[in-house]
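queue> pop job 88
queue> type: inverse folding (structure -> sequence)
queue> payload:
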């Protein structure tokens, strides 16, 4: 990214405190205490909601602050829910709690799910065993699940098994890469009989709290965990490679799609190359699309270059779009240059706009300017708007302003709102809020105006607009206003709005419950 773009981002957004910091600093202690009580009341109200998905979200919020005693009764009521997706999530939560009663409930749910959702239940159980030291157990569960499925022909199961392979290998990598100050209570060793590696192969340890009087601190076992780095690829091969190679030839495209997803999750170039090279020619565009997505996750330019070069000419625009998305994530200008140049005049509007977004996101002005200059006079106003945003992203605000000036009186109100947002991104915040104030009374744009006010994050300029919208008749608008208040640091106003909406329709109630997780509102709740 150019120096101009970097300094621009810092001056517009980077130096503002995050909404958690604003919430802690803007209000007196008594107001904070009132907000805490209100947040707790809303959460308690929602934990008896008629919608099981909302109750599950509330249980997760209680678990997040360590209030297991509040979460467990909710989970107990959900373990017999008619939705199997709910029961799968409940199984995960019981396994996370991990005490005797919760483990008993987990076994109950697992037995209930095993006949109909063996793939999903097996994946959850395999992941749990891996986290707690059982690589061999996890592998055995997946293999048996797959073998059972050979006779039953359930493609959903085979897809879930592929996903689980990705999760297992990725969890192994996370342990060696993690720098979080976590305490561990023991390092266990698997025998060569169990895994077929070395007798001193370390296994992932449990977190502190599992009946050990003298827990080891992570800093004391890093040296032991370093064993894992030397055998990481062997563990991946042992657990994931045989299953994924078997499934990559599955007759159902759905399963092959999940294989590509798992490869991206694992992120191992050596494992990925033969599988992705084979799947890039798959007859299903869904599979080819997920090949590109996997390459973006892996981030290896050398691996990606020949495959993305082949996929950039794919007949389906979804695949071409994901090729550009992969270029953006990898961030290699030399990889992206020929692909962007070939796709800049693509017939699909979404692909053409994505080319411009990638130009801005990669931040290489030498790469971006020729493409932006070619498209800045395009007939489509959305293309010109995206050009202006890309100019701003690479630090060429002077080139962005004339385009935005020409667009600010477009008939399409959605474009005018986007123009206001783009002005904020290039540093013209006061003008942006002035324009948003003019647009706040357009019925179909009120929610988006509120969202942008929160995203820009200037409390002084945003507040008058949000105050005008907070009593809107549309609950969705009020919900957007509440989230914007959270982003500018006014937790009290947001909770007041949530309090008024807590008996609204299920969609709104779900959004309120999710806000406790999204905005760390559980930090405000007394256990």
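queue> result:
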């Amino acid at each position: 990214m150019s120096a101009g773009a970097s300094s621009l981002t810092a001056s517009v957004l980077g130096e503002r405190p995050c909404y958690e910091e604003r919430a802690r600093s803007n209000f007196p202690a008594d107001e904070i205490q009132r907000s805490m009580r209100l947040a707790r009341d809303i959460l308690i109200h929602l934990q008896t909601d008629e919608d099981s998905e909302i109750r599950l979200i509330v249980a997760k919020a209680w678990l997040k602050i360590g209030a297991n005693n509040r979460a467990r009764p909710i989970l107990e009521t959900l373990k017999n829910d008619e939705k199997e997706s709910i029961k799968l999530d409940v199984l995960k939560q019981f396994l996370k709690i991990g005490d005797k009663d919760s483990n008993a409930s987990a076994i109950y749910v697992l037995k209930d799910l095993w006949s109909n959702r063996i793939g999903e239940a097996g994946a959850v159980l395999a992941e749990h065993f891996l986290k707690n030291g059982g690589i061999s157990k996890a592998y055995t569960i997946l293999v048996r699940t797959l073998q059972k499925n050979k006779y039953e022909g359930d493609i959903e199961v085979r897809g879930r098994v592929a996903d689980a392979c990705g999760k297992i290998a990725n969890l192994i990598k996370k342990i060696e890469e993690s720098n979080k100050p976590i305490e561990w209570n023991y390092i266990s060793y698997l025998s060569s009989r169990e895994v077929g590696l070395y007798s001193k192969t370390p296994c992932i340890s449990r977190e502190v709290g599992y009946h050990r009087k003298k827990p080891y601190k992570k800093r004391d076992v890093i040296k032991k965990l370093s064993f894992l780095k030397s055998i990481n690829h062997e563990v991946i091969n042992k657990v994931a490679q045989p299953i994924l190679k078997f499934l990559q030839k599955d007759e159902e495209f759905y399963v092959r799609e999940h294989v590509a997803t798992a490869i991206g999750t694992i992120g191992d170039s050596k494992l990925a190359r033969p599988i992705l090279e084979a799947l890039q020619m798959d007859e299903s565009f869904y599979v080819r699309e997920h090949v590109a997505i996997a390459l973006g996750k892996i981030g290896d330019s050398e691996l990606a270059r020949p495959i993305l070069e082949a996929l950039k000419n794919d007949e389906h625009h979804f695949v071409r779009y994901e090729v550009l998305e992969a270029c953006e994530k990898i961030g290699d200008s030399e990889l992206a240059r020929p692909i962007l140049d070939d796709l800049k005049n693509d017939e699909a509007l979404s692909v053409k706009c994505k080319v411009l977004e990638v130009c801005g996101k990669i931040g290489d002005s030498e790469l971006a300017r020729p493409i932006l200059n070619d498209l800045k006079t395009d007939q489509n106003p959305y293309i010109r708007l995206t050009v202006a945003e890309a100019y701003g992203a690479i630090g060429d605000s002077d080139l962005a302003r004339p385009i935005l000036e020409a667009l600010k009186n477009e008939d399409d109100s959605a474009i005018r709102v986007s123009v206001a947002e783009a002005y904020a991104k290039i540093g013209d915040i006061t003008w942006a809020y002035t324009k948003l104030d003019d647009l706040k009374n357009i019925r179909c744009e009120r929610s988006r105006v509120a969202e942008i006010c929160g995203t820009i994050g200037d409390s002084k300029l945003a507040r008058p607009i949000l105050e005008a919208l907070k009593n809107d008749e549309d609950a969705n608008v009020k919900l957007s206003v509440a989230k914007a208040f959270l982003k500018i640091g006014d937790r009290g106003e947001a909770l007041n709005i949530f309090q008024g909406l807590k008996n609204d329709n299920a969609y709104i109630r779900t959004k309120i419950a999710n806000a406790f997780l999204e905005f760390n509102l559980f930090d405000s709740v007394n256990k």
